[in-house]
Amino acid sequence: MTDLTQGEQRRETEAAWGAVLSMSLCVAMLIAAEFMPVSLLTPIARGLGATSGQTGQAISISGFFAVATSLLITTVAGRLNRKAVLIAMTALMLISLAMVAMAPSFAVLMLARALLGICVGGFWSLATSVIMRLVPATAVPRALGLMYGGQAIAAAFAAPIGSYLGEIIGWRGVFWALTPIVAVNLVWHVVALPSLPARSRQSFGAFIGLLRRGYFRRGLLAVTFSWGSAFTMFTYLRPFLEQVTGVGVEAFSLMLLGLGCAGFVGSALSGRLVGSRVERLLCLPALIMGGCTAALLLAGQSPVATGLLLFVWGAMNTAMSVIWMSWMARTVADQPEAAGGLMVAAIQASILLGALIGGLLLDVFSVTATFTGSVILAGVAVVLAGNGKRLLNPVRR
């Protein structure tokens, strides 16, 4: 009888990690789909008779809808089984990719990207709370590290592969190539994810209740400044490398590849290093990434030094997600879905604002001013995070 029980437990554990892997693939495809237009901007614009600036808004509109959905998903989904919601989000991503591939006009492209934004906001808002239900509490950081490994894969390979394949099969062919992978992922969700009944009906009152908690409000501000700093720098990395470091397209692509591959290191290490005292790590992402950005201002003329600094930055960029989501899982365990919605909304909004602030500094002053702005935002995030004690739930200290 004991052997049978152990066998059942082993099968349940294997099934849980299979579901985590399914979500990891979905993360990779979401990141690839969201940022693929970056590497295909010019051919998409040419194919749809739009300007590059207009086509760039295809990224902004997905971010806008991701923010809106992250705040609405837990309320709109109500008591729907979370497995069904995740499957619906993945199906929506498949529809969006097919619409982009077939888009006859710029308007259809924007509609397709809006649908993708809904998928991004909905999936990310529920992802951490679902992970918390799939594996034991002690395994949550490892599972989050595995899930964010999908982000590292997409960050490392999506842009260069998309750019390369775009020259061979065209930009529409690139989006068509993503559809069978997402279709397989959709089937995997159906098979691997267990039934996840909604535990309670969420309302906007849950958001207000969370924002009244001083420790969570302070953490949310630290999250906003951390991601804002990161994307103020990352969005304008190419002009910095071209103007300051003086690298060409090939070297730039290699540095991006190295930065993306560093994400594997960050996701693997953070998943193992996040222990019971996660609050001690909260200041590290902004501190190390801000430090790397400041060092680039001093040593950015050296391609070797720049490559090493970007590798460290890339590793911590992925670790940042694991660290902060682990903090959320432990300090707001009573409201994981509402907390996830607020976290995703803050991150998506900070990405948009970071790109906006960085662009203004670049246009008015220079790319070094953009990187300086990133360092300042990181400094604010470090001050807000501090030693992490003020970001702990006083009931659970």
Notes on the structure:
This protein folds into two domains: 1-202, MFS general substrate transporter like domains (Growth Hormone, Chain: A), CATH 1.20.1250; 205-397, Up-down Bundle (Growth Hormone, Chain: A). The protein is 83% helix and 0% strand. The protein is built from 14 helices and no strands. The model has no long low-confidence stretch (mean pLDDT 81). The longest helix has 53 residues, at 140-192. With 397 residues, the protein is mostly helical. It is globular and about 55 Å long. It has helices at residues 2-39, 41-48, 52-77, 82-102, 106-134, 140-192, 204-211, 214-234, 237-245, 249-273, 284-299, 303-331, 336-364, 367-385.
The share of residues in helices is over 70%
Total number of helical segments? 14
Strand share of the residues?
under 5%
Look at the structure and give the CATH class of the largest domain: Mainly Alpha
Report the end-to-end length measured between terminal Cα atoms: 40 Å
Q: Would you count the extended β strands for me? A: 0
Overall spatial form? globular
Q: What's the CATH topology label of the largest domain?
A: Growth Hormone, Chain: A
**Would you identify the CATH H-level superfamily of the largest domain?**
MFS general substrate transporter like domains
Low-confidence stretches: none
Give, in order, the helices and strands: HHHHHHHHHHHHHH
